[in-house]
Amino acid sequence: MSRLSDFRKQKDDFFKYHPQSPLMPEQQQAFTGLDYFPENPALRLEVEVKRLAQPEQVKMLTSTGDVQTYTKWGTFQFEVDGQPAELVIFRDSHGGFFLPFQDATSGDETYGAGRYLEPEPLRNGRFLVDFNYAYNPYCAYNEMWSCPIPPKENRLKVPIRAGERTFHP
């Protein structure tokens, strides 16, 4: 079993059996697993992040109309099927890295409000951004959750066909 397959199995088990699953108990009973794109090695990227000279606090609207504060930390550029793209990496209040995004699959093949990733810092200003681990926020499964909506600057015109697909209970 690959690392990604093992990760997905553990996540499906969490959703099915764990009391802190975002699924309602009746959804857990019927749950058979999340839907994923096949692993796409071309969307496992080591990118150089251009850190902002002046990181700034930004407020992201959430799915419930609340606001959450993040620090706009840096940007990176990459290509998807020969098309250029750029995204902003944020830091959360605990110092972790956060990459909310929408792409050309949002609302069709993937959750309409977008998906998330936690980029992994490497060395020399580089990060691992593996879109195969892109996931739906908990509000995709249960509207009682409050999830940040990706800002306009992280809305891609290219499709990211990796990670979780739309949830169909």
Write the layout of secondary structure elements.
Elements: H1 3-17, H2 25-30, E1 44-48, E2 50-61, E3 67-80, E4 83-91, E5 97-101, E6 115-117, E7 120-121, E8 126-130
Question: Which tags fit this structure?
Answer:
2 helices; 5-stranded antiparallel beta sheet; 12% helix; single chain; 169 residues; 3-stranded antiparallel beta sheet; mainly beta; globular
Overall description:
This protein has 169 residues and is mainly beta. It has 2 domains: 1-34; 36-154, no CATH class. It contains 2 helices and 8 strands, in the order H-H-E-E-E-E-E-E-E-E. It has helices at residues 3-17, 25-30, and strands at 44-48, 50-61, 67-80, 83-91, 97-101, 115-117, 120-121, 126-130. The model has no long low-confidence stretch (mean pLDDT 95).
Span between termini: 26 Å
Q: How would you sum up the global shape? A: globular
Which secondary-structure class do the elements indicate? mainly beta
Average pLDDT reading = 95
Radius of gyration: 16 Å
Number of helices: 2
By DSSP, the count of extended strands is: 8
Strand arrangement in the largest pleated sheet: 2-3-4-5-6
Give the proportion of residues in helices. 10-25%
The succession of helices and strands, N to C, reads HHEEEEEEEE
Unreliable stretches covering 5 or more consecutive residues: none
